């Protein structure tokens, strides 16, 4: 039983190869809750906090994509260049837990845990983010919707680390909205991310906390693309927006639990999607 | 205690402390309080939902209950015990007393750390910035109004001190 | 760069921290530096950790308990179960119906079954996991209405009805042209103090006694209950209050006290127990969920002619204070309004839900939510404003309650309403608000155009102190020597600031600035509980009484020394002043070399039990408050932000403005929590949200602006003229918030907490 704190990615991958059952901890904000609540016992731990390269981020030379290290805390995404290039990610980042959580919680951790309520995930889904995985034997990239396969399940192999995420830098409006029963520090009851890509004339909407995975509303996206000139600035009226919301709500697969009801979650998705669309195409 | 074979160092309030025979899953909060004899940092939820255990780690205000202590070996950690200056209260500490922001006092150490961190990084925060910055620190007694007053008062006192 | 030294933060002589001043807390400095020792901060040489095994089932028969695997774990020192309790096997505040450990049957999820002591908390956790219990699961009784039925089999030898009480007042046939009725539902709120349950028990070397350092609300009651369970004389159980991180009612019952003492006595070593947040939700009682039906009859002017009510409080598995909560509920059914005719029927029942007991507001929170809903319905029916209906019915001093008791207290209900009404309303929501400041907050769910604003009212009456003939008293000792006053009392300081007040009283009465507080412990007579808004009156009265006795002795001493008739002497500042000869003598100098020591017990005027018709002078005194609330609501998503709470509260006399406003603001935010977010959610007796992730408390971004007026009309019955102020703030703010949401949205809302779907998905 031991804790290993590698300082380089290579060291981490070697350690992971030798003990593939090891628990990987980045910010610790998910794992420690399970430990503190006696839900999980540890054997070997690999801590990623000291691997500086994992918290780097960079814009591609052509400016069309942004790569964020899996160890970058959410606090670093709330403002500055990342917020300018991917505003929906900044908005989602600002709703993660509390300021203290955001100071250490990472995109890599959100992806590792893969909770449908993870605030960063609808944004990654809507952006068709590419997840970078690496093992001692190589690297591979997985698109987000192939990565998250179920409630708290993903396609990371035991010997792989999530090293980063690449998202496109798009022209067009984007936004994230999240319903919780408190005005701060709350787990999503329902959330939605809307992204407009005027270059490819596509609209993407992804839903959080209303299904076993993040839900991309492909039918709604296609329907809207057929009804509206995506690349235009033509306002979206209330009727069209409402139908957009209703269609997104149909694609949601919410459940009843102690945080809310399936009916409310579906309703909330309808409202959020509709409002996001009207913000994207204001009168 | 079995099994217990972890041994490491923590840098807390400028001092290097050895932690021996620790269990791997121990939080920084537990180690500070129970192993290093620094009970000033409080725990009230064990899941980062109350902020009572806030400490500064490598310049960021974090919940020590969510830091696995053994992973904090190379970090610079400051707790509430490290905030006063010699035998004097800081402006934030003084303001919490004079503005009535202390009742039961259980949330107070975490708030003192969080507010100190806020004012170190944003000396004159707006009201909403204050509210957002301490939105992770639950206070069950005061209803927050006196805490807001204390932050205003401390910010002002720091301005005066700086001149 | 200037700094303020710790020395400078002590009281200045030129700003005497007497009654009426915002004296500083004596525990303020250690609380801001982290030096203050809460019960969870205690430790001792060779200390063991204790932990409790609890039932995962709401209702089950215990078929077998197998401890063998747990005993084999290295580091485990002892394991105890019901058979190891040497004395009484049960405890309880009013009736002793709750087992120290469940023996044959568990009656709620979280009921203790065994406890272990070991060398590390993790060893304890592993030992608990290794205890094998075989259960035969039973169908839990969770519906309070079912509990009332005679056909339902009892889940406890004491039966399923904990208490039943009626009030029959005036003419049962009275009626009026206007009738409104409704059913009101109140969810289960948790006190959610931040400082979790913790205690350190140190056994005497002979094993015949124990010293317990514990966070509690009532040391002497704990002492009695522990002694009975341990089968030891009371004096062998010595309790000292350790730092208390909030209470709000949740520390009135026994939680870990008996277990911790038993483990210490069994092992002969100090034992510390400390609950985590999850265990805390199971380890203490909660606010009673209630279902209340009310019908009001009014005349054409809106004056209440008669009220009818049926109130059911779910007491959960054990009685705790349910009988008293019930009486508070039914006797406050009329609210702060005059009413001559009433038929009220009340039940406190037993179910397999978590036990419920004391929480700030104690039965009156539930009653108020119902009567204030009724007042709004009545106002709407006769087309007058919510303010006007309340003014027309406002109770006055001298009015007779539905229990037949005459209100002798100052009763400035009308003034509370009018002064609240005069507080300016907040500015309208700006055109481009920061999204953090509107409903939805950091979730960015709405724009300005989605938000509606509403205003709502709530007014409350709250009894002060214990009721129904309880011989309620508080004890204090005052010692004056060498210019220093020393105070000894057993009053639990839970954060409210009694320690500050105690010093202020002594400074005012005795003209001394240096007031030392001795440890709060059972080595003096009881102070009663820190609850029921009673300690300022009761323990304040005891300290005032003790200090006055000391002052008499001091005047005799000064009189003898200087040849002055003591009757001419008064305290003026820090001097003894001869009001005839006008000579002055410093108290500090006059008390050199002498010791004056006096103990005083303060009793309030006696009360009576209610008769079978609910008639009797059962309460001591009353306080009143009004709340006007402004909310912003996103009606489509059902999200709420409380913008402003205006309040005028009848406080009698302000003894410490800063402490008083802190009570008012803090109580309001707890009432806000009940209104829109706080609820323990149950499914067939199982608690679904025992954590701060899912039991939501208001954050700084949920807190409203509070504008408070304190109405000072000194209460003649009260020793210091001051009424208790802790409870009223959290009572009528809840219905006022809900009324404001109704006003903003036009939605019928008669349940708290209001959930988003209640607003936007009303079917």
Supply database-style keywords.
heterotrimer, B: 163 residues, alpha+beta, five-stranded mixed sheet, 5 helices, 34% helix, C: 763 residues, six-stranded mixed sheet, 32 strands, globular
What does this structure look like?
The complex is a heterotrimer of chains A (283), B (163) and C (763). Chain A has 283 residues and is an alpha+beta fold. Helices cover 33% and strands 23% of the residues of chain A. Chain A is built from 11 helices and 14 strands. Chain A has a 5-stranded antiparallel sheet with strand order 4-5-10-6-7. The mean pLDDT of chain A is 96. With 163 residues, chain B is of the alpha+beta class. Chain B contains 5 helices and 6 strands; from the N terminus they run ββαββββαααα. Chain B has helices at residues 28-35, 91-98, 108-121, 127-133, 145-162; strands at residues 6-12, 15-22, 54-57, 60-63, 76-78, 88-89. A 5-stranded mixed sheet of chain B has the order 2-1-5-3-4, with helices on both faces. The longest helix of chain B is centred in the C-terminal third of the chain and has 18 residues, at 145-162. Chain B is globular, with a radius of gyration of 16 Å. Chain B starts with 5 loop residues before the first strand and ends with a helix. The relative contact order of chain B is 0.15. The model of chain B has no long low-confidence stretch (mean pLDDT 94). Chain C is an alpha+beta fold. In chain C, 24% of the residues lie in helices and 26% in strands. Chain C contains 17 helices and 32 strands. The A-C interface holds A 33, 36-38, 91, 94-95, 175-189, 191, 257-261, 263-264, 267-268, 271-272, 275, 279 and C 125, 276, 278, 436, 439-447, 450, 636-639, 641, 676-677, 681, 683, 688-689, 691, 693-694, 696, 698-702, 755-757, 760-761.
Strand content of chain C: 25-35%
Low-confidence stretches of chain C: 1-13
What is the total tally of β strands of chain C? 32
Q: Helix count of chain C, per DSSP?
A: 17
Taken from the alpha-carbon principal axes, the silhouette of chain C is globular
As a whole number of angstroms, the C-alpha radius of gyration of chain C is 27 Å
Overall pLDDT score of chain A: 96
What radius of gyration of chain A results from the CA coordinates? Answer: 19 Å
Overall SS class of chain C: alpha+beta
Oligomer: heterotrimer
Helical segment tally of chain A? Answer: 11
SSE string of chain A, helices as H and strands as E: EHEHEEEHHHHHEEHEEEEEEEHHH
The most extensive contact between chains is: B-C, 70 and 75 residues
* Strand adjacency order, main sheet of chain C: 4-8-2-15-12-13-14
Distance between the termini of chain A: 61 Å
């Amino acid at each position: 039983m031991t804790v290993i704190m590698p300082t380089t990615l290579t060291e981490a991958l070697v350690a992971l190869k030798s003990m593939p059952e090891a628990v990987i901890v980045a910010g610790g904000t998910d794992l420690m809750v399970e430990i503190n609540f006696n839900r999980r016992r540890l054997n070997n731990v690999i801590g990623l906090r000291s691997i500086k390269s994992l918290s780097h981020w960079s814009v591609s030379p052509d400016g069309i994509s942004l790569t964020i290290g899996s160890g970058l805390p959410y606090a670093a995404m709330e403002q500055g260049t990342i917020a300018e290039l991917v505003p929906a990610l900044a908005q989602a980042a600002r709703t993660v837990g509390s300021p203290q959580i955001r100071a250490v919680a990472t995109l890599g951790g959100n992806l590792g845990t893969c909770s449908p309520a993870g605030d960063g995930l609808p944004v990654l889904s809507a952006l068709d983010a590419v997840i970078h995985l690496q093992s001692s034997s190589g690297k591979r990239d997985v698109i987000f919707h192939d990565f998250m396969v179920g409630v708290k399940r993903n396609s990371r192999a035991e010997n792989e680390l999530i090293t980063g995420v690449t998202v496109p830098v798009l022209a067009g409006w984007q936004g994230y909205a999240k319903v919780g029963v408190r005005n701060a520090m709350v787990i999503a009851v329902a959330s939605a991310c809307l992204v407009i890509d005027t270059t490819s004339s596509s609209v993407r909407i992804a839903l959080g906390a209303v299904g076993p995975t993040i839900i991309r509303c492909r039918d709604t996206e296609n329907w809207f693309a057929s009804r509206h000139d995506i690349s235009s600035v033509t306002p979206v009226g209330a009727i069209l927006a409402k139908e957009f919301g209703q269609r997104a709500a149909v694609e949601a697969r919410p459940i009843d639990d102690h945080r809310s009801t399936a009916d409310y979650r579906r309703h909330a998705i309808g409202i959020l999607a509709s409002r996001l669309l009207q913000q994207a195409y204001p009168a | 205690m079995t099994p217990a074979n972890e041994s490491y160092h923590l840098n807390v309030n400028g001092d290097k402390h050895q932690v021996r025979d620790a269990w791997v899953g121990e939080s920084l909060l537990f180690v500070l309080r129970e192993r290093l004899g620094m009970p000033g940092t409080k725990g009230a939820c064990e899941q980062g939902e109350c902020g009572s255990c806030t400490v500064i780690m490598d310049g960021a205000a974090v919940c020590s209950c969510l830091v696995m202590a053994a992973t904090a070996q190379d970090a610079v950690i400051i707790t509430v015990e490290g905030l006063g200056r010699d035998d004097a209260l800081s402006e934030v500490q003084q303001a919490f007393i004079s503005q009535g922001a202390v009742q039961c006092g259980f949330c107070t150490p975490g708030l003192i750390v969080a507010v100190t961190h806020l004012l170190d990084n944003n000396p004159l925060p707006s009201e909403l910035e204050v509210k957002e910055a301490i939105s992770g620190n639950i206070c069950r007694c005061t209803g927050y109004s006196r805490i807001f007053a204390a932050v205003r008062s401390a910010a002002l006192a720091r301005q005066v001190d700086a001149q | 760069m200037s700094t303020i030294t710790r020395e400078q933060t002590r009281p200045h002589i030129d700003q005497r921290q007497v009654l009426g001043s915002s004296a500083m807390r004596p525990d303020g400095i250690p609380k801001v530096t982290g030096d203050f020792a809460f019960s969870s901060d205690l430790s001792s040489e060779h200390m063991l950790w204790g932990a409790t095994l609890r039932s995962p089932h709401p209702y089950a028969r215990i078929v077998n308990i197998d401890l063998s695997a747990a005993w084999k774990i290295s580091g485990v020192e002892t394991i105890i179960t019901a058979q190891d309790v040497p004395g009484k096997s049960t405890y309880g505040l009013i009736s002793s119906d709750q087992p120290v450990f469940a023996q044959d049957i568990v009656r709620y999820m979280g009921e203790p079954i065994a406890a272990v002591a070991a060398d590390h908390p993790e060893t304890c956790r592993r030992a608990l996991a290794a205890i094998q219990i075989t259960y035969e699961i039973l169908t839990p009784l969770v519906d309070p209405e079912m509990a009332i039925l005679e056909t339902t089999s009892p889940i406890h030898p004491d039966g399923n009805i904990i208490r039943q009480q009626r009030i029959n007042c005036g003419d049962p046939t009275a009626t009026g042209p206007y009738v409104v009725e409704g059913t009101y539902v109140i969810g289960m709120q948790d006190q959610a103090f931040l400082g979790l349950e913790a205690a350190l028990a140190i056994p005497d070397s002979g094993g015949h006694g124990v010293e317990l350092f514990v966070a509690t609300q009532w040391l002497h009651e704990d002492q009695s209950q522990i002694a009975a369970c341990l089968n030891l004389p009371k004096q062998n159980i010595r309790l000292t209050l350790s730092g208390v991180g909030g209470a709000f009612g949740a520390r009135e019952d026994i939680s870990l006290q008996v277990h911790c003492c038993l483990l210490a006595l069994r092992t002969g070593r100090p034992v510390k127990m400390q609950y985590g947040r999850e265990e805390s939700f199971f380890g203490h009682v909660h606010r009673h969920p209630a279902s209340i039906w009310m019908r009001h009859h009014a005349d054409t002017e809106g004056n209440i002619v008669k009220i009818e009510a049926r109130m059911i409080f779910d007491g959960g598995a054990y009685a705790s204070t349910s009988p008293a909560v019930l009486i508070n509920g039914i006797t406050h059914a009329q609210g702060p309004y005059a009413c001559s005719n009433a038929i009220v029927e009340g039940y406190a029942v037993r179910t397999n839900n978590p036990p419920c007991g004391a929480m700030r507001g104690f039965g009156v929170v539930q009653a108020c939510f119902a009567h204030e809903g009724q007042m709004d319905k009545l106002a709407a029916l006769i087309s007058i404003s919510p303010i006007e209906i309340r003014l027309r019915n406002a109770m006055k001093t001298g009015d007779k309650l539905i229990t037949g008791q005459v209100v002798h207290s100052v009763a400035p209900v009308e003034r509370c309403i009018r002064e609240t009404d005069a507080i300016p309303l907040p500015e309208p929501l700006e055109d481009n608000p920061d999204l953090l400041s509107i409903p939805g907050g950091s979730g960015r769910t709405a724009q300005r155009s989605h938000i509606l604003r509403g205003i709502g009212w709530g007014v409350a009456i709250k009894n002060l102190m214990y009721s129904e003939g309880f011989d309620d008293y508080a004890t204090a000792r005052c010692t004056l020597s060498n210019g220093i006053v020393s105070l000894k009392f057993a009053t639990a300081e839970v954060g409210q600031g009694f320690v500050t007040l105690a010093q202020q009283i002594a400074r005012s009465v005795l003209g001394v600035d240096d007031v030392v507080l001795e440890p709060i412990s059972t080595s003096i007579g009881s102070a009663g509980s820190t609850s029921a808004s009673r300690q300022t009156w009761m323990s304040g009265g005891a300290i005032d009484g003790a200090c006055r006795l000391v002052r008499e002795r001091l005047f005799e001493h000064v009189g003898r020394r200087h040849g002055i008739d003591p009757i001419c002497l008064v305290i003026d500042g820090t001097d003894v002043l001869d009001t005839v000869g006008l000579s002055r003598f410093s108290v500090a100098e006059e008390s050199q070399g002498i010791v004056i020591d006096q103990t005083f017990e303060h009793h309030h005027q006696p009360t009576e039990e209610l008769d079978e018709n609910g008639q009797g002078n059962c309460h001591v005194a009353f306080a009143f408050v009004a709340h006007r609330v402004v909310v912003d609501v996103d009606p489509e998503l059902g999200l709420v932000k409380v913008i402003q709470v205006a309040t005028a509260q009848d406080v009698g006399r302000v003894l410490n403005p800063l402490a008083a406003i802190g009570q008012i603001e803090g109580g309001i935010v707890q009432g806000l929590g009940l209104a829109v977010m706080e609820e323990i959610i149950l499914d067939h007796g199982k608690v679904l949200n025992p954590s701060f992730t899912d039991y939501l408390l208001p954050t700084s971004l949920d807190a409203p602006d509070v504008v408070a007026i304190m109405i000072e009309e000194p209460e003649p019955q009260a020793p210091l003229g001051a009424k208790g102020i802790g409870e009223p703030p959290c009572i009528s703010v809840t219905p006022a918030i809900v009324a404001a949401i109704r006003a903003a949205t036009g939605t019928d809302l008669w349940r708290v907490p209001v959930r988003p779907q209640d607003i936007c998905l009303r079917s």
